[in-house]
């Protein structure tokens, strides 16, 4: 009823007022400020290369404030007659528009309809005259300001049933929505902006009344309220009871989508969560469903078997018509899924696709400061033209399968067809690349590289992640603050929660492969070092992660509950809420600062899972499942970050390689006394049925004997680097878990015993 009333009201505006509106004569100023002119001169070569400057004009008629931006998308609008400004953080607290309406247009560089509307409407002088005379005009790159985009995308979905880009919204001077839509033709858009401007001029109270009704609807439906309405925190036992049904709902949804009409998305976080649940439950249908989903994608044109990399999604239900953009985050998401699938199955085609995708990112997206965000779908003005064969060849490259489902394990890169297709692209005009480096996307990509390294031990993955994270740390941090964007070496846009979260997560993963930090740093607190500007103290991945987590925690601590809960929905990326929760959870496991528990409790408190919304909140659900029961594939951290262990398979045996931080140890097997908990290794199937001892043998290393400060007797210990071997494993054909029971101590205290589970 609300939506029908809203549409009827807007319709009445147009019917009653639009015919009476006469064209307003407004002269667009062609005088250009010196600052804008200088910025244009500095970026002329780039603008020419991107075809923003058409012809040989070196003196454009219009230059707006977007010429100063660090976004290729915004720069493409910088020579339009609209007096655009870009989004500023200050707009969160008000627009200071002097009573004018606010027009916001949100898009991104690889958005086809964004560029269509730009050509049709925003480059048009008549449209510009109406916008400039009646509105404050704000252009937003959704990739720079994801939370701004999410806010208005949610409003558009609620009011119209679906959302897309360009996302256009008109607000009152106070920031309340009065109209929102996506692409409109020039004629329809002109009618909207003229009709609403006229209505605002003649009857502002009617517009304010409409805005108040819409605002009330949005707050009610989007859960914007006070913290007391957020619901109660679920206990661990309540989560344990809910989780199986949640996983089953996702599994059923993934199967249902396989028969849908499209569009089709990769659902990377569904796949990752279901693979993890397979490890916990042993339910093989979860693994089989994910494998089927992956294999269909790899055999489809949505995966570029010629050069590597995944297109953004499929337009149809059969994965045969790609939407040809290639996004960095898509590659990161899919590398993570492929790494997990390869780690569980050992199937070579997952490893091949993972390596080919990373190599494509390295070839196409790598720049001097990180990895560019995206490749356009367009080449020579046509979507997908770069990926299609010429019509006179009699066939299309896209859709042509290099391998079949029966022979997917063959390395298609060795085939003659592959070589021919690769060579045929060499002379084609490549799509444009959005060169901006986004910290969160790059950090997510680093996570994917480290997960690829974990299951393959291919050093190039580790090296790429190391170089990338170093570059982000050195270039995105300025004046002791983290920025979100790097564009041609310039850092801009304050970092968002997701930037801190994914950057910290990546660094904590990297720390697994670094030597333990110097004791000297542990004796000097992080804040004390920063106050003295001892930047060189922040050298290890763990130390850098602490810096990031402290700032992430401040945002969690200072964020209002209603605003935090609005960050729980997944999109093509996992929710900001889940990213923050995951980063702080990792920090607590590996660093153990007390504040981390407080921040986690706050995030848990404000998450109230509902069955109808669980599909769009699954990334957080998977983290809670991991908290209830964590199963590792190849490596684990224990003892609050003071110990590391890696599982390796070597010619008929399993090897557990331990690395204890100096000053920490575990009890040997056998222990010095029955009162101490010996390190114990056992095996079980995925249903937790224990594998009998005669089915395998455990070789424990020789103990180190020493006296510690809290005990006069000599103790049998394992410390430093040591190895436990499992030999003569009788049946290795079915999946099994390796269980490690362990208790870690320092010279002054002992932690509680803990269990580590490995899948093999």
Automatic annotation (TrEMBL):
<dbReference type="InterPro" id="IPR004879">
    <property type="entry name" value="Ssp411-like_TRX"/>
</dbReference>
<dbReference type="InterPro" id="IPR036249">
    <property type="entry name" value="Thioredoxin-like_sf"/>
</dbReference>
<dbReference type="InterPro" id="IPR024705">
    <property type="entry name" value="Ssp411"/>
</dbReference>
<dbReference type="GO" id="GO:0005975">
    <property type="term" value="P:carbohydrate metabolic process"/>
</dbReference>
<dbReference type="InterPro" id="IPR036929">
    <property type="entry name" value="DsbDN_sf"/>
</dbReference>
<dbReference type="Pfam" id="PF03190">
    <property type="entry name" value="Thioredox_DsbH"/>
</dbReference>
<feature type="domain" description="Spermatogenesis-associated protein 20-like TRX">
    <location>
        <begin position="64"/>
        <end position="218"/>
    </location>
</feature>
<protein>
    <recommendedName>
        <fullName>Spermatogenesis-associated protein 20-like TRX domain-containing protein</fullName>
    </recommendedName>
</protein>
<dbReference type="InterPro" id="IPR008928">
    <property type="entry name" value="6-hairpin_glycosidase_sf"/>
</dbReference>
């Amino acid at each position: 009823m609300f939506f029908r009333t809203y549409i009827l009201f807007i319709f009445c505006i147009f019917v009653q007022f639009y015919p009476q509106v006469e064209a307003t004569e407004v002269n667009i100023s062609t005088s250009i400020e010196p600052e804008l002119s200088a910025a244009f001169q500095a970026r002329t070569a780039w603008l020419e290369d991107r075809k923003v400057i058409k012809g040989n004009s070196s003196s454009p008629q219009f230059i707006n404030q977007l010429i100063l931006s660090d976004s290729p998308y915004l720069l493409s609008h910088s020579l339009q007659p609209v007096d655009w400004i870009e989004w500023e953080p200050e707009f969160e607290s008000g627009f200071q528009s002097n009573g004018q309406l606010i027009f916001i247009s949100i898009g991104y560089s690889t958005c086809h309809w964004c560029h269509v509307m730009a050509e049709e409407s925003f480059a048009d002088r008549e449209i510009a005259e109406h916008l400039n005379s009646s509105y404050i005009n704000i252009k937003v790159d959704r990739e720079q300001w994801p939370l701004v985009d999410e806010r208005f995308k949610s409003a558009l979905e609620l009011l119209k049933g679906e959302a897309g880009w360009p996302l256009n919204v008109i607000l009152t001077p106070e920031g309340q929505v009065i109209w929102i839509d996506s692409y409109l033709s020039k004629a329809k858009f002109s009618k909207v902006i003229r009709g609403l401007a006229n209505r605002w001029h003649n009857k502002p109270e009617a517009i304010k009344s409409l805005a108040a009704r819409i605002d009330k609807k949005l707050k009610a439906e989007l859960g914007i309220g006070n913290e007391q309405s957020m619901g109660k925190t679920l206990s661990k036992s309540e989560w344990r009871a809910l989780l199986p049904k949640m996983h089953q709902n996702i599994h059923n949804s993934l199967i249902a989508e396989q028969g849908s009409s499209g569009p089709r998305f990769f659902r990377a976080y569904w796949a990752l969560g279901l693979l993890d649940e397979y490890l916990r439950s042993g339910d093989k249908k979860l693994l089989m469903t994910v494998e089927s989903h992956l294999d269909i994608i790899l055999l489809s044109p949505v995966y570029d078997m010629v050069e590597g990399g995944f297109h953004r999604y499929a337009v149809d239900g059969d994965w045969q018509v790609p939407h040809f953009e290639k996004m960095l985050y898509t590659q990161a998401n899919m590398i993570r899924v492929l790494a997990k699938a390869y780690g569980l199955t050992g199937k070579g085609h997952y490893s091949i696709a993972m390596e080919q995708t990373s190599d494509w990112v390295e070839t196409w997206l790598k720049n001097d400061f990180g990895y560019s965000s995206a490749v356009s779908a367009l080449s020579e003005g046509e979507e997908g033209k770069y990926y299609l064969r010429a019509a006179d060849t009699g066939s299309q490259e896209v859709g042509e399968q290099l391998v079949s489902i029966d022979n997917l394990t063959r390395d298609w890169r060795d085939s003659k067809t592959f070589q021919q297709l690769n060579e045929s692209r060499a002379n084609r005009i490549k799509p444009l690349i959005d060169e901006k480096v986004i910290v969160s996307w790059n950090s997510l990509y680093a996570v994917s590289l480290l997960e690829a390294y974990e299951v393959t031990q291919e050093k190039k993955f580790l090296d790429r992640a190391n170089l990338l994270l170093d570059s982000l740390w050195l270039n995105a941090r300025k004046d002791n603050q983290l920025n979100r964007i790097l564009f041609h070496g310039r850092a801009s846009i304050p970092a968002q929660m997701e930037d801190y979260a994914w950057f910290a997560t990546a660094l904590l993963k990297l720390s697994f492969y670094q030597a333990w930090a110097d004791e000297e740093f542990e004796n000097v607190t992080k804040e004390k070092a920063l106050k003295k500007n001892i930047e060189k103290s922040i050298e290890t991945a763990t130390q850098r992660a602490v810096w990031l987590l402290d700032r992430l925690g401040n945002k969690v601590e200072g964020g209002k509950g209603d605003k935090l809960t609005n960050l729980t929905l997944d999109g093509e990326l996992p929710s900001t809420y889940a990213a923050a929760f995951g980063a702080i959870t990792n920090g607590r496991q590996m660093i153990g600062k007390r504040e981390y528990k407080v921040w986690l409790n706050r995030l848990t408190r404000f998450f109230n899972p509902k069955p109808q919304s669980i599909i769009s909140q699954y990334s957080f659900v998977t983290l809670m499942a991991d908290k209830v029961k964590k199963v590792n594939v190849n490596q684990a951290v224990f003892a609050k970050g003071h110990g590391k262990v890696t599982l390796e398979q070597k010619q008929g045996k399993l090897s557990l390689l331990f690395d204890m931080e100096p000053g920490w140890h575990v009890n040997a097997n056998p222990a010095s006394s029955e009162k101490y908990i010996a390190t114990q290794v056992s095996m079980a199937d995925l249903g937790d049925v224990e594998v009998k001892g005669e089915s395998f043998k455990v070789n424990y290393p020789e103990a180190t004997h020493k006296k510690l400060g809290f005990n006069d007797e000599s103790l049998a210990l394992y410390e430093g680097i040591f190895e436990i071997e499992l030999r003569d494993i009788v049946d290795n054909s079915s999946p099994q878990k390796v269980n490690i029971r362990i208790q870690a101590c320092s010279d002054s205290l002992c932690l509680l015993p803990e269990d580590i589970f490995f899948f093999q």
